[in-house]
Design a protein that fits this description.
Blueprint: E1 3-6, H1 10-17, E2 24-26, H2 33-39, H3 44-62, E3 67-77, E4 80-82, H4 88-98, E5 102-113, E6 118-130, H5 135-143, E7 164-168, H6 171-175, H7 179-188
Parallel strand pairs: 1-2, 1-3
Antiparallel strand pairs: 3-4, 3-5, 5-6, 6-7
Helix pairs in contact: 4-5
Length: about 190
């Protein structure tokens, strides 16, 4: 069975490759993540699974016999959701807010096969504890460019690891694709990983 990753994220491609599966990566459907999450009145996990499904829907429709994997990641702190920063000022603001505090990284994952109407989905949550960040540390990290395009304005697999004191949960989830959950969903859809 052909596997498609509906994402152009290099991090998601690298993580999925570690499972030893052959796959093609296609762009995710262009959806207004902020609007969808703001309008969702259910639990956050359910909203993220729906959003992940929407991101993979176009690829599934275009390739009905392929298994399509899609995901969406957000950072939550005190009930507020932090997506990708809009620019350097937004990245600074996010990092200052995360400094010396705990937050949660949530990733909704969906696996679908359009020809069968098959859908399996789930959500993974990891607790992340940031170190106390000085204004200079925040400024240097933002200037590195690494926060661009990253939920919560940091990349734990890069220099952002220096901002984190510890995590409780799945590291791969914080990078952008929870591998245990992904493997479980793929297996449920008929694609064995191990």
């Amino acid at each position: 069975m052909r596997l498609i990753l509906a994402s152009t994220s290099p991090r998601r491609r690298e993580l999925l490759a570690t499972l030893g599966l052959s796959f093609d990566a296609l762009p995710a459907a262009d959806v207004d993540e902020a609007r969808i999450l703001a309008e969702c009145d259910g639990p956050l996990a359910q909203c993220l699974q729906h959003l992940a499904w929407l991101k993979g829907e176009a690829a599934a429709a275009a390739h009905p016999r392929a298994l399509v994997l899609s995901a969406d990641t957000v950072v939550e702190i005190e009930g507020d959701l932090l997506g990708k920063p809009a620019g350097e000022a937004d990245a600074r603001s996010m990092l200052e807010r995360l400094s010396n505090r705990e937050h949660r990284v949530h990733t909704g994952v969906a696996v679908q096969l359009a020809s069968d109407g098959l859908l399996h989905s789930g959500c993974e949550t990891t607790r992340v504890f940031f170190a106390r960040l000085s204004a200079d540390t925040v400024a240097r990290y933002v200037a590195s460019g690494e926060p661009t395009g990253k939920a919560g304005a940091y990349a734990i697999q890069g220099r952002g690891a220096l901002l984190v004191e510890r995590i409780d949960g799945d590291y791969s989830n914080v990078v952008g694709l929870p591998l245990r959950l992904t493997a479980r969903l793929l297996a449920a859809a008929g694609m064995g990983v191990l």
